[in-house]
Amino acid sequence: MFCWKCGNEINEGDKFCTKCGAQQFKVCTKCQKRISIFDGFCIYCGEKLIAPKAVQKPKQKDQKNFKTYSFKFSNIKLNASKRDEINKWLSENNVIIHYLKPRFYLNTSCPGKWQASIDTLDIVYEPVETNQNYYFEYASVSGWIKRPTEKLEKIYNDWKETHPEYKILWEKEADFQTTRSEYVMSIFVLCKKIEQK
């Protein structure tokens, strides 16, 4: 499931978002059932509820311009070509991205180059006047017997050190174990180029 406020992926049942801290649900004081934080009355017993002051329902006008662009990739494409396709769209469109919804799968289409890959990616955005200098990047690794977590972290950290002009806005890892006892891992990031002062 995803946080209603920032779009961060969270575990089912998490009461608060681990990224922005937004409350995800509340419990009725009378019947103890879990309900939406936006409900003024319990949908199960009718008890009147007080909405938490720290969390308010987004106004309809705030989201009226939100749009979704869905990337549906061919299974034969590796992450590099998917990255290039996403970056082409980002460079050609003046948007503010509110959140990303990826779906991952084990890409076995290229012998010797199996990857934890993106199957689909939904970008929820709002059109604006100027380009925001977004950049989409990834790193993929594989390893035998155990997950190559340290190897992926090193590649990712090296990339961040050599690209200080980018601020990381979103990151997501995906990993799979193959039938040949190999682990494949990828990390996908959305960055924004920092304006030089």
SS field, number of helical segments = 3
Biggest β-sheet strands, sense, barrel: 3 strands, antiparallel
> Total number of β-strand segments?
8
- Distance between the amino and carboxyl termini: 39 Å
- N-to-C series of helices and strands: EEHEHEEEHEE
- Overall mean pLDDT stands at 83
As laid out across the biggest beta sheet, the strand order is 3-5-4
Kindly state the percentage of residues in helix: 10-25%
- Coarse shape: globular
Q: Structural class of the helix and strand makeup?
A: alpha+beta
Short description:
By secondary structure, the chain is α+β, with helices and mostly antiparallel strands. It contains 3 helices and 8 strands. The strands form 3 sheets. Strands 3-5-4 form a 3-stranded antiparallel sheet, covered by helices on one side.
Primary descriptors:
about 200 residues, alpha+beta, three-stranded antiparallel β-sheet, about 35% strand
Element layout with pairings:
Blueprint: E1 26-27, E2 34-35, H1 60-63, E3 67-72, H2 79-92, E4 95-107, E5 115-127, E6 134-144, H3 149-162, E7 166-177, E8 182-193
Antiparallel strand pairs: 1-2, 3-5, 4-5, 6-8, 7-8
